[in-house]
């Protein structure tokens, strides 16, 4: 089953795009820091907006959701602009398809196992 949701937000709610801290590089032979540094989360926790508020927990929640649907390419997320890190994550995706149901890609859970274990 696949579905689609289209939302029109008023101009008074501008969005700000953020690079996902556990995004992949998509370059052959080049790993993202989180792929080789098991203490990467410690550095993320010292960086705004992940150093206070719920943002890091929202990233971890998103990782669990992405794992369940097989989405290994969460490279950006949005939030409401000028929210000072307080708004929830807004996940916009072209949603071409769900991942392979026969493959569990453990690396999708990196925010969870690097920050919570």
UniProtKB/TrEMBL annotation:
Predominant place of localization: Golgi
Keyword field: ATP-binding, Disulfide bond, Glycoprotein, Golgi apparatus, Kinase, Manganese, Metal-binding, Nucleotide-binding, Transferase
Binding of Mn(2+), residues: 93
Residue positions of the active site: 73
Subcellular localization, as worded in the UniProt entry: Golgi apparatus
Family matches, as InterPro entries: FAM20, FAM20_C
Cofactors named for this entry: Mn(2+)
Pfam entry (one): Fam20C
Protein name in the entry: FAM20B glycosaminoglycan xylosylkinase
Native source species: Rousettus aegyptiacus (Egyptian fruit bat)
């Amino acid at each position: 089953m696949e579905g689609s949701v289209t939302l029109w937000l008023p101009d008074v709610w501008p969005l700000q795009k953020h690079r996902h801290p556990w995004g992949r590089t998509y370059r052959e032979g080049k790993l993202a820091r989180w792929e080789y540094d098991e203490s990467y989360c410690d550095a993320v926790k010292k960086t705004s907006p992940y150093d206070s508020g719920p943002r890091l927990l929202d990233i971890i929640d998103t990782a669990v959701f992405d794992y369940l649907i097989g989405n290994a390419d969460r490279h950006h997320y949005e939030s409401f602009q000028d929210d000072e890190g307080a708004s929830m994550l807004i996940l916009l995706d072209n949603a071409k398809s769900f991942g392979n149901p026969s493959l569990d890609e453990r690396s999708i859970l990196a925010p969870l196992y690097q920050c919570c274990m």
